[in-house]
Design a protein that fits this description.
Pfam families: 3HCDH, 3HCDH_N. This is L-carnitine dehydrogenase. InterPro entries: 3-OHacyl-CoA_DH_NAD-bd, 3HC_DH_C, 6-PGluconate_DH-like_C_sf, 6PGD_dom2, NAD(P)-bd_dom_sf. Keywords: Oxidoreductase. By secondary structure, the protein is α/β, with parallel strands linked by helices. It folds into 2 domains: 181 residues, 3-Layer(aba) Sandwich (Rossmann fold); 120 residues, Orthogonal Bundle (N-(1-d-carboxylethyl)-l-norvaline Dehydrogenase, domain 2), CATH 1.10.1040.10. Helix content is 50%, strand content 12%. The chain contains 12 helices and 8 strands. An 8-stranded mixed β-sheet has the order 3-2-1-4-5-6-7-8, with helices on both faces. Helix 6 crosses helix 11 and helix 9 packs across helix 10. The radius of gyration is 21 Å and the shape is globular. It starts with 9 loop residues before the first strand and ends in a 5-residue tail after the last helix.
Length: 316
C-alpha cells in the first residue's frame, strides 16, 4: 500500500506520547511524509526512539514503497506541523480544555477538505468538535494500542460530523492497513474499551474475592477464550457453540443460566487493597520471566497471528 493509493501524501501527528508516536511509526511505514508536533521538551527524542524501536517489526510486516524513517519531520510549532497536511491525527492529553484548544488551532491551520481524526479514548467528539470552524470534518479515529501493530480503529462521528467525513475516514484507514469499524452512536469508552472494562471489572473482582490468583486469571483468558476471541469475536464464537442451531439455540438453552451469571457478576472500586492485590499478583507472575523477552515473544506471536489471519478470508 502506498500513500498514492489513499489520496493523502502528508500526515500531521499532533501529540507524540505513546499513541501518537506509534501512529507516526505506522504512517511512516505506509509510505507517508509525517510532520509531528508536541510541546514537551524531550518530545522529539522520545518520538524518534519509538520509531527506531518499532521499525524492525514494521520491516517484518512489510514496508510500503518509499517508506522511510527519514520522512519524519518534527516541528515544535503546531501551525508549522499541520500546514500542508492532507490528514491530521490528534493525540493530545485526555483533558477537554486541551482538546478544544488543539482542535481550534489545527482547524485554523489546515485546508477545508482535510479531516481531523482524534485518538481520544474517553472524551466524546461532540464535546469538542465545535471548537473548529468546520466541525463536520472532526471525528474519532481511535486506535488500539499499539497502533503500529494492532489493526483496529474505531471511527465515530459527533453530532456535527458529516456522513461524508465518516466515509472518507473509513476508506482512508482501510487503505493504510487498518481494520476500521464505524460506531453508530457515541458512548464513553467507545466499544473495545467498554468490552475490556467489563472483563477487567470481573477479573479484579475475582482476585479480590480470593477465587483465583492474578496468574490463574491471565491463564484462563490466554489459554482459553482469548485464543478463540482473537479469531472470531464473541458473537461468532457463541454461534459455533450452538451447533446446527447456532446462536439462537445457545440463547434458548443457555440464556437463563447466562442471565444468572450476569446478575452474579461483581462490582468494585479501585481501593488501595484492590490495587495492592493486582500489583503483587503481577509481580509474582513476572518473577520467573524476563519482561523484555516476554514482550519480544508477544510481538513475534502477534505478527505470526496477524499474518495467518490475513490469509484466512472467511475470518472476520
Amino acid at each position: 500500500m502506498s500513500a498514492i493509493d489513499t489520496g493523502v501524501d502528508r500526515i500531521a501527528v499532533v501529540g507524540c506520547g505513546v499513541i501518537g508516536a506509534s501512529w507516526a511509526a505506522h504512517y511512516l511505514a505506509r509510505g507517508f511524509d509525517v510532520a509531528a508536533t508536541d510541546p514537551a521538551p524531550d518530545a522529539e527524542k522520545r518520538l524518534r526512539e519509538v520509531v527506531e524501536r518499532a521499525w524492525p517489526v514494521l520491516e517484518r510486516i512489510g514496508l510500503a514503497d518509499g517508506a522511510s524513517k527519514e520522512r519524519l519531520r518534527f516541528e515544535p510549532d503546531l501551525a508549522s506541523a499541520v500546514k500542508g497536511a492532507d490528514f491530521v491525527q490528534e493525540n493530545g492529553p485526555e483533558r477537554l480544555n486541551v482538546k478544544r484548544d488543539l482542535i481550534a488551532r489545527i482547524d485554523a491551520g489546515i485546508r477545508d477538505d482535510v479531516l481531523i481524526a482524534s485518538s481520544t479514548s474517553g472524551i466524546l467528539i461532540s464535546e469538542f468538535q465545535d471548537a473548529a470552524l468546520r466541525p463536520e470534518r472532526v471525528l474519532l479515529g481511535h486506535p488500539f494500542n499499539p497502533p503500529h501493530l494492532i489493526p483496529l480503529v474505531e471511527v465515530v462521528g459527533g453530532k456535527l460530523t458529516s456522513p461524508e467525513a465518516i466515509d472518507r475516514a473509513m476508506r482512508f484507514y482501510a487503505a493504510v492497513g487498518k481494520k476500521p469499524i464505524h460506531i453508530r452512536r457515541e458512548m464513553k469508552g467507545h466499544v473495545a474499551n467498554r468490552l475490556q472494562a467489563a472483563l477487567w471489572r470481573e477479573a479484579f473482582y475475582l482476585v479480590d474475592q480470593g477465587v483465583a490468583t492474578v496468574a490463574d486469571i491471565d491463564a484462563a483468558i490466554a489459554h482459553g477464550p482469548g485464543l478463540r476471541w482473537a479469531l472470531l469475536g464473541p458473537f461468532l464464537n457463541l454461534h459455533l457453540s450452538g451447533g446446527e442451531g447456532g446462536i439462537a439455540h445457545v440463547i434458548d438453552h443457555l440464556g437463563p443460566p447466562m442471565e444468572d451469571w450476569w446478575r452474579d457478576l461483581g462490582d468494585l472500586t479501585f481501593t488501595e487493597a484492590v490495587k495492592a492485590e493486582a500489583v503483587e499478583g503481577v509481580d509474582d507472575e513476572l518473577k520467573c520471566r524476563s519482561l523484555p523477552a516476554m514482550i519480544r515473544q508477544r510481538d513475534d506471536v502477534l505478527l505470526a497471528l496477524l499474518a495467518l489471519k490475513a490469509k484466512a478470508d472467511q475470518l472476520p
